[in-house]
Amino acid sequence: METRTCVCFLLLLGTLNLVASSDLNQRILKNTLHNVNTTVDPCTDFYQYIGGNKKKDQETSYTKEIGEIREKFNLRLVPIFEDLGQRKFIDELGVEEKLWRFYKSCERSINATGSERVYLKLVPPAKNFNWPQFYSSTREWSSAKFDFMTALGNLRNYAVNDIFFSVFYSNDFYDSTSSLVTFASPKTDEVFALPSESHLKELLIRQDFSHLRAVYLAKAIGRLDRELRQLHQYDDKNPTILTVAEMENEENGGLSWRKFLKAYLDTKIERDYQLQVFNIDYFKSLGPLLEKYDSEVIATYIMVRFVHFVTNTGYFPSGDNSHDCINVVGYQMQYATKLLYEDRYLGNGELQKYQSEINRLFQAIGTKILKKLEENHFQLNDSQILALQEKILAMDLNLNNMPTMTQRRRFVNDYYRDLELTGYEDYPEAQLKVLKCFARRMQKVSSSYEYFYILNLSLEEGYSSTMMLDLTNIIVIESPVLQEPYFVHNSHDIFKMSFLGVMIAKQLTSTILPTRIYYDAQGNIYDLFDNFANNEHYKDALKCVNKSQPEYLEWSITYISAVQLAYETYFDSDSIFDQTQPDFTSIPLKQLFIQNSAKLFIGDLEPNSDNDPEEKTLKVIFANTKAFSEAFQCPQSADGMNPIVKCKIFES
What we know:
Layout: H1 2-33, H2 46-50, H3 52-58, H4 61-66, H5 68-85, H6 95-109, H7 115-122, H8 148-156, E1 166-172, E2 175-184, H9 197-206, H10 211-230, E3 240-243, H11 244-247, H12 257-265, E4 274-277, H13 280-291, H14 295-312, H15 321-332, H16 334-345, H17 350-375, H18 382-394, E5 396-399, H19 408-415, H20 427-443, H21 451-455, E6 466-469, E7 474-477, H22 493-510, H23 536-546, H24 553-571, H25 589-597, H26 614-623, H27 626-632
Parallel strand pairs: 2-4, 5-7
Antiparallel strand pairs: 1-2, 3-4, 6-7
């Protein structure tokens, strides 16, 4: 009797699991089809068919700023912060308390009048020396005492970067077992745009500059910003290793790097201290450019950049302080937020289930790309093929850019150990403490288990669901994407492969294309592929894509490859995935794959520009895949969705 009861219970449990799984798949399917317009022929207008126009009309400016995935993630953070308000802490002396105190400071005073001045009072350009407007006259503010390199080094300790240059700790690109302070030209496309001249003038007047002085300085720093953006910048794959003394030579720009490093690292720097420098030509031009401007203009430019950074980092006002501060805190205390999110939504073995499923996709896609390498469409030599195979085989996955499961709480508590918040600070003071903690951790690279995790967290960059850490050969998957309707571990494989699978395929293919092919399996730069950009097969692909999408050549080639690679991984005869038509839909799986993967390219799943040519992007990517022509059986035409000649990357 007991045996029969046990069997019945197990059968009931299995039935309930099947029902729950069916309901989950129905919900994801509903989301996928929400904007699909079946009255439109996908062969003639795929953008209208997939609902790209509807999707764009539905999005708010807030969604555009932070991305749909991050917005849904923030909504899931709300009950976590509600619990923190009830003092439901796992560790009363741990990271929960610090997160809550920062959140309350934000909620209480993030919109306080005069906060810009508070930041400037709290962070002067140097010890015992203040910003120009805090003196009674320009004459009293001594330009001779102002050293902009010292000011930049001081601000870097509050995570401020990319003013005149970018600086960060990184692996030695020629020896990934050691690290160097690394300099590069600023990421002008990613840093906040300088306000208009009229807004600059208003900002300066708020900081107590006279009207006349504000007019002059607004024009001057606007001109300086334009000239900086026009300096010679290029994507330098191979950095130069130089000593501080060599960088201070006039031929390399003549800037006072020892002063910057002394303020940044708080230690005396010797002349033979080695630096890693990308785009040395930029620095050669930077020194002479800055010499054209007087000290007050340079100081004011730095000040404006600093104020803009601290008042905008993670802050996208929606009119609801409590909601906005969840995003602010989640952005500026990323590891603490990730840990609490995992505890609530990915506990009780859920995180391990996600890791197992993601790894299953990764292994399948990796196996397929290894076969592509064996087919040798790029006509590589044996050494090159072997090097790429070793790189793919050595590649690893990581969830949330954190150490392994057992170390996660210890890692996060250690990360914020030096952060001391009373809970009574106004937001500017609390934020500066958080930023200083972040910057300090970026400098501490002695602990091997945390080195790469700290190194690659950035406040300047927007949210991304996946990223490739070239120097460690690791693909990182962020937890916001591990939710409905994006990726759920027990959903149907078609949804998993057509969404996150395409993202993983994108990271894998990019490692063997010119964007990342120059790194070996250990993350070192090597010269085995120095001439790959001249590869005839690759040049033909560039030329083909250039005809329809010249703005995003390498990006388009990578995603064409990624969609096709994920599709073949799922549907080829050697696939490990079930291709049987599921009960929850009558839509052919190949069409469902295209419909779900198309979501990656319409709307704003991640922060995006209004200028992103979605319609053109969709056509370039899907028209050049066999996946689309097989799924929809479109007639061949010269410039339709099934062109007679497709752009070929991993096929001949």
